Amino acid sequence: MWWFSILVLLYNSSFIFSQSLPLLLLVSFNGFRWDYPKLYGPLGNFSRLEQRGVHAHSMIPTFTTATYPNHYTLITGLYEEIHGLISDHMYDPKTNQTFQAGETTANQWWPFKTIWTLNEQMNGARSGVINWPQGFISTSKYEPYKKDRSFKDTIDLMLSWFNDQDRPINFGAMYFPEPDLTGRRTGPYSSNMKATIKQCDEYLGYLLNEIDKDIRLKTKLHLIITSDHGMEQINATDRPMYLEDFVNINKLKAFGTETVLNIFVNQPNDINSILQNLTQIPHSNTYKKENLPVRYHYKTNSRIGDLIIIVEPGYELHRQSFRICEDGGTRVDLNTIHGNSGYDNQIDSMKTIFYASGPELKENFTLSKSINLNNVDIFPLMCLILNIEKCSLSNGTLSHIQPFLNDPSKLSSLNGKETEKLHDGPMGLVIYLLVLVSFVLILIMAVAWSAVSFRNASAMARAAHPDAATIAEQNQYKFTQINDLKLHPSIGDDNL
């Protein structure tokens, strides 16, 4: 049964190789405002994570500050005008198709490589995703969003993937819909929100405790806790505003949320008159696309309208055609709406959280308030942690994440020469030699065994050959280079 021993050796070498890969878990709490730990603290487990790792005073999301666009930014490092997911509800004039968050699943809306895709392109690396707000995700392990899946069950499933004996993952991403749901129902300053934040702290505590029970995860796993946006209290709920009260809706198409609307004008000659009407909407600003402030990074995509209405914080602009009341009418009952996001990404209420820990990161470190951490910066940080030396082009700024690192010089690997082969380095060399010796042994034993049984030797050779071919193929991946300042002009609307 010598051949069984060889197979066991091969299996163990493969498992050892998978254990040598960097480990990272990305967790998103939807709608977790940056100051909730102060408003509803002390939060013991968030403080615990802060002490064992790094923390930012706040993190700035992309504009618009909506769920689907910002979750796509987190995993691509791109502004919304670049990756094209510019709203939770949007229109593509090129294809004449409409996107609606939670309903649309076609892959055409998510065209760029994500952090989990880049991770899986490394030899032996696997990614797992649970509940992420996106269409179908092609990774080694995937579970779509289920409303009734508890946070505890999500944690247990994710950690079991990291410890899978056959196909362990080294990168995981999971999403939880709170405290966003509570914020929209009762507002960010309610007693319900206080209870929800305390519950989120308990969820984090459970995650940390489960990680600490596993010595490998405790010592090797990097953990990032973040969110997509903050939450703003809604004012004037007894005086709702409707788009139809200010403009002839038959002259345009409107897509977006209650806080940012993209207006596509049917006839170009009507754009100035429609703009004049829209400027009469209280508590809002309307821009022509080309006149939007540059800081929004929200003008170079065809899915952005001819005119953009941006509502002031605390207010909403509704559409009679978009919401239908329970009594069949077309007026919105704002008694059920007390919080929202989607406002200017620079205001405090839209900023969110960032905590991280792991062997590559400092302990008990808080980023200086003089550095504005943006969510586009998280992508290159994850590339560094996962040893993806040549990630896709990104809007992230490396100098923003440099203070987090135990060894800031590692940033040079993201801008260096072509990606080295996976097996470079002492540990990689040991594993490579182990696998090589295993195959040599198989070859020798196969030749020896051929004197006794030609059939068994032939079967052995056929079994061994595909593995060698696979290993050779998997060492050919090359990646494009990160840009520390801005994207190359060729990456933009035409690529969507």
Automatic annotation (TrEMBL):
Domain of life of the organism encoding this protein: Eukaryota
Alphabetized UniProt keyword annotations: Membrane, Signal, Transmembrane, Transmembrane helix
Signal peptide segment: 1-18
Regions crossing the membrane: 429-452
Entry coiled-coil feature ranges: none
Entry's Gene Ontology molecular function annotations: hydrolase activity
Protein name as catalogued: Uncharacterized protein
UniProt organism field: Adineta steineri
